[in-house]
Write a structure and sequence with these properties.
Layout: H1 2-25, E1 32-42, E2 47-54, E3 57-74, E4 76-88, E5 94-106, E6 110-122, E7 128-131, E8 145-150, E9 156-163
Antiparallel strand pairs: 1-3, 1-9, 2-3, 3-4, 4-5, 5-6, 7-8, 8-9
Length: 165
Amino acid sequence: MRLRRMVMTGVALLPIVGLANVAYANGGGRGWTNVNVTITPTGLDQTFVDTVCDPTNTQLCTYLAKFPNVVQQGDLVGTTVEADAYGVALNGVTVNVYVGTFNGTVKDCGAGTFLYAGSAVVVDGTVFEYPIVNGSGTGELEGITGTIRSTDAGTLTGVLRCRRR
């Protein structure tokens, strides 16, 4: 009888435990918060590092470029350095692969650094996504996750998950 009551109590608690785990997975767990961010980057001066073209068709090229002096303002305040590699097909389709670092402060999260990386097929109206690399956060940004998105308008927005400050 006693065992039966314990089993019934345990079964009754399963939905509550399950809901708590869902809350933690979505950033609502104890010690973590979701932060909506809006960022305006400046200093977007692209420097070409290298160009390699197919010797049999010089219109088929890949490019290596860098953005060495980007300053972030808004909910992220700091600097980024980014390297891009991209290729352009004869029909104009462009593929861009990028990796960058952020060094600064994130609203409601604190100060530190993180790495982001992504890729995109570029067409009119492309939304670039900059996912934070899991495990790359340092300082108060240790454990930070999320994705920042940009459009042709020049403003970036996103939802980041970090430790409560």
